[in-house]
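Need tokens for this chain, all 322 residues.
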Amino acid sequence: MTTENTDISCAKRTIDKEVEALRSMEKELDNSLSEALDLMQNAKGRVIVTGMGKSGHIARKIAATLASTGTPSFFVHPGEASHGDLGMLTENDVVLAISNGGESRELSDIILYCKRYGIPLIAMTKNPTSSLGKAGDILLKLPDNGEACPLGLAPTSSTTATLVLGDVIAVCLMERKGFSQVDYKKRHPGGKLGAILQKVSDLMHTGDEIPLVVEEASMQEALLTMTSKMLGCVGIVNDKGELIGIITDGDLRRCMSSDILTRKASSVMTQNPKVIAPDVLAAEALNTMNNTGKGITQLFVVQDKKPIGIIHIHDCLRVGVA
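Here are the structure tokens for all 322 residues:
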């Protein structure tokens, strides 16, 4: 057998072993999950997640996921807890303690602190009869199917199962709370996620920045407005303030003549221009501009047919919407 085939065989065994652990955990799900979710959802304080070693690494990720999806949460290192960080815990909090075997000595001080001050303790472990398993007010059982590691020692299947159970908790809480895209965006203002969740109303130019003239205006006035606003177009509105047309650089090139400055803007405009609503995602606005077949670079933002803003393709690209 070649090295490549050996590697593929090893990869498949590892994946199968980890999937087996997840299926086992799925079958063992019971009402304890709902009880734990009730505690976390109704907590007046925060969900404190803790764990040692590899469980600690997973605990950090679970805390971060909870915090970013609407459940205030942070990670407390059990070693640091014994040297003052226990003060971070309050009687309004809920503690989620993670230990695959349930006998991490470093967790003992946190467990005792929870018992002393009546702080609800959720134990996540494969061993219900362990110190952690017995101490927990609620037990979330991890599968006991062994590790994918060929030595049966390195945390592999167990950490995967722990990570997935943490995701289960976060997703269930999101659904319980009706956590929306708007809520998510508030917690992810930066990076690609923040850009994807930007709305047209977040990026559009408003007020005096909107290039507009009335339909009776001359092309001289339209050109002056178009030049001063520097967005490559001017919108035409009727006496009701409704957008009825647009003049772009392309329209100027098509209609260029010696008498263009004496003409009315309404005679040069393109009627019924593409528009967009303010609550649409900026990514959709960019898609509209890119796929009209005319290569437009701006869209007027309208509400009840009246322009309330304008968004340029550069506004989308500037914040990373692509």
